[in-house]
Design a protein that fits this description.
By secondary structure, the chain is an alpha+beta fold. It folds into 3 domains: 257 residues, 3-Layer(aba) Sandwich (Creatine Amidinohydrolase, Chain A, domain 1); 164 residues, Creatine Amidinohydrolase, Chain A, domain 1; 306 residues, Creatine Amidinohydrolase. The chain contains 23 helices and 32 strands. Strand 14 and strand 15 form a beta hairpin. The longest helix is centred in the middle third of the chain and has 30 residues.
Length: 755
């Protein structure tokens, strides 16, 4: 339940906040209480209860009397009200489940509804039952959690649970007669395979004829209809977008208890575990003390508001908190972060975290200044949920509250809703939204120690992958059987032998033939294919090391590729080289350089439906914003020395094969021959050092600069990876690697390239 109002207020389950920018006096707060005081209308409690009296007990649905308040056209009328009737489209919903239930009041034994299709439909029936109880015409299910994480814990996979689509990105909208999933080009093929097309509609985001979620709602709902979403997981920025697009035509409700969670608890007894221990990251790895980081944050965002201004900064994203305090955890799969919030003021530091997660050495480290004369570096621990009471209790202490737009709406509501009208006015006037936390801007620029750690992590990881692939190719040559799943422990084994190994950085994409055309394919027992000499094999994998995070993709063929496969691979490689060898002024953004990678494919009418590059954390998230290379970036960010990104163009032919080549690069300062107008220039340096596949390269397509780049890249492989393989007795891997990094002297001569 929300705890936004004082204890004397009535208990409530849905909260709607519609703030208007003109003045706080126009703000409207709608509260649906457990007696259904619907949108400030007085409706008889007994009538409403009879309307929505659906009970689920022991797998049965009992449907009571809700026809009594129906008009002739299926609309529900609220007695004594002059407002327009509200259409719940009950008849449509009744038809939708007619094959399961014949008449109101009939009991349904779900045990007789066998199979995955019945289970998928059962979930929607239950969800629509809860929607009817709460008088919702549409319900939005998001992929995120309270902290807007890209990858979420198992107990936060609500969208996956309701839709059975396992990709990391997507939005579900369920109405009383439709169920739809929106996802981007990375997942179009995967979603089409995983969704039950009998009850789900796939909306392919990014295609010109696909309505986005707000346009679809405007087109398919009627004026006055109510749309619900779980307040804990929708960000302020997304809520504001929905509100601006949909109100006042529709009513947009923030639900305090998620409807999918209600179903999940009923079906699967979902359990939450947020109590994994956190641990210290040594300063010799982080390169900077947490105290210095906090003071930099204060200088950047708190002490810049004038002498008469008191400011509080809320930090809600988990990788920002982990980086700031030099801590790591295990609460999110593959990402070494932990559930927490933090608030920093000019004189205080608060960390909201469950006490059970804090070992004594972490407490001692963060509270070692609590006995100082000046305690502004003393970290005060509060429980995780106390963040929702903090601002209501301390509102009078701050003139300015700064928060990233990614905060969830439960926190936002706790700031701006108060029994005290003066607090509401103060909050609405003094709340400052930031595109991103100042910590994020600091974090994406690695310090010298982080840069060295990231570099060494890429080198060790490259050696591990070379070891693993040389093993696999030897096995395939000797006709030993391996499939997409059985080979995965081999990759983890070789990585686990490397210094500072902490685990994988994401679920590996191990894909053969048609499966490699699924951009974010996840191998499963029912879809796995054998790795053979006849089909392309794509491997996208990475690891977490104490000193860095890795992410690398290479595409292989252990037999004889087709001419088209060679051309595609070569053009993808050309795009990767174009980006990696680019020299550019420092005002250029990721959106602008993206075309360099696509140009070789565009020449042949080919393309790929994903970004070309993403930021990379230092023993943090494998996808680190806001830096991004692609046409769809939400914010143009200038590159700076010390940023790490991926360089990963690709191509995917549905139901045939896919190619992707991903190399981690670092942005570095570059000195040009001339310096026009004192302009600073930048370039990329490649740190992933895994050979490309010579049998897939059509060298006739390459220009001299691209051939030289490959030679230089191969020289770096020999220089930096050879010592690691020798130290680890990787003789087979060394032979495999050396065959693929032979200098391209003959090709350079044939092309007439200069020395």
């Amino acid at each position: 339940m929300f705890n936004f109002l004082t204890a004397s207020c009535i208990d409530f389950w849905i909260l709607f906040v519609a703030f208007r920018a003109i003045s706080f006096t126009r703000a409207t707060i709608f509260i649906d209480s457990n007696v259904h005081n619907d949108y400030n209308r007085s409706v008889n409690q007994n009538e409403i209860k009879s309307l929505n009296h659906y009970n689920v007990d022991n797998g049965e649905i009992k449907i009571h009397r809700f026809h009594e308040l129906l008009g002739h056209n299926g609309r529900i009328f609220f007695p004594g009200q002059n407002s327009s009737p509200r259409d719940l489209r009950v008849k449509v919903f009744s038809k939708r489940i007619q094959k399961i239930r014949k008449v109101p009041g009939e009991k349904i034994n779900w045990e007789n509804q066998n199979g995955p299709e019945a289970l998928a439909e059962r979930k929607l029936v239950l969800l629509r039952r809860y929607m009817l109880e709460r008088k919702l015409d549409a319900y939005i299910v998001l992929s995120t959690d309270e902290h807007q994480n890209e990858y979420v814990n198992e107990f936060d996979k609500r969208r996956e649970f309701i839709s059975e689509f396992t990709g990391s990105a997507g939005t579900v909208i369920v109405t009383l007669d439709k169920a739809l999933l929106w996802t981007d080009g990375r997942y179009h093929l995967q979603a089409s395979q995983e969704l039950n097309s009998q009850i789900w509609t796939l909306m392919k985001s990014g295609l010109g004829n696909t309505l986005n979620t707000t346009n679809w709602l405007r087109t398919n709902l009627k004026k006055g209809d109510t749309i619900g979403v779980y307040a804990n997981v929708i960000s302020y920025s997304l809520w504001k977008n929905y509100r601006d697009e949909l109100e006042p035509t529709f009513i947009f409700l923030l639900v305090s208890e998620d409807l999918v969670d209600s179903i999940w608890n009923t079906l699967n007894k979902k359990e939450a575990n947020k109590n994994n221990k956190i641990y210290l990251l040594p300063e010799k790895i982080s390169g900077e003390s947490w105290e210095n980081k906090v003071e930099r944050v204060r200088k950047r965002s708190i002490n810049d508001n004038g002498d008469q201004q008191t400011c509080a900064l809320l930090i809600s994203e988990l990788d920002d908190i982990a980086w700031l305090y030099n801590l790591r955890g295990d609460d999110i799969p593959y990402n070494p972060v932990f559930f927490a919030y933090s608030i920093i003021t000019d004189s205080s530091i608060y960390l909201f975290i469950n006490n059970i997660k804090l070992p004594q050495e972490v407490r001692d480290n963060l509270q070692r200044h609590c006995d100082d004369e000046d305690t502004k570096l003393c970290v005060k621990f509060l429980t995780y949920d106390e963040v929702y009471q903090f601002f209501p209790q301390h509102m009078n202490q701050f003139n300015i509250i700064k928060t990233p737009k990614s905060i969830n709406m439960r926190i936002y509501s706790s700031i701006v809703i108060s029994p005290n009208e003066e607090n509401i006015k103060k909050a609405s006037q003094n709340l400052v939204f930031l595109d991103y936390s100042p910590v994020k801007w600091m974090k994406i620029i690695k310090n010298p120690i982080e840069i060295e750690g990231m570099k060494q992590a890429q080198y060790r990881d490259s050696a591990a992958l070379i070891n693993a692939i040389s093993f696999l190719e030897d096995e395939i040559e000797n006709d030993r059987e391996w499939d997409e799943i059985s080979i995965l422990p081999i990759y983890e084994y070789y990585r686990s032998k490397q210094k500072y190994f902490k685990g994988l950085s994401f679920e590996p994409i191990s894909a053969v033939g048609p499966n490699s055309a699924v951009i974010h394919y996840s191998p499963k027992i029912e879809t796995k294919r054998m790795i053979t000499k006849q089909e392309i094999y794509l491997l996208d994998s990475g690891a977490q090391y104490l000193d860095g995070t890795t992410d690398v993709t290479r595409t292989f063929h252990f037999g004889s590729p087709t001419k088209f496969q060679k051309e595609v691979y070569t053009r993808v490689l050309m795009g990767s080289i174009n980006l990696a060898s680019l020299v550019f002024p420092n005002y250029i953004t990721g959106r602008q350089v993206d075309t360099m990678s696509r140009q070789p494919l565009w020449e042949m009418g080919l393309d790929y439906r994903h970004g070309t590059g993403h930021g990379l954390g230092a023993f943090l998230n494998v996808h680190e914003g806001p830096i991004f290379i692609g046409v769809a970036g939400s914010l143009d960010v200038n590159f700076k020395h010390g940023m790490f990104l991926s360089d990963e163009p690709g191509f995917y032919k549905a139901n045939d094969f896919g190619v992707r080549l991903e190399t981690i690069v670092m942005v570095k300062n570059f000195t040009t021959k001339y310096n026009y107008s004192d302009q600073d220039y930048l370039a990329f340096e490649s740190y992933t050092l895994v050979p490309f596949e010579p049998k897939l390269i059509d060298y006739s397509l390459l220009n001299c600069n691209q051939v030289k780049w490959i030679d230089d890249y191969n020289s770096n492989i020999k220089r930096y990876i050879t010592p690691i393989l020798i130290q680890q007795n990787g003789s087979r891997a060394l032979m495999w690697m050396n065959k693929r990094i032979i200098p391209l002297e003959d090709i350079r001569i044939k092309k007439g390239c200069p020395d």
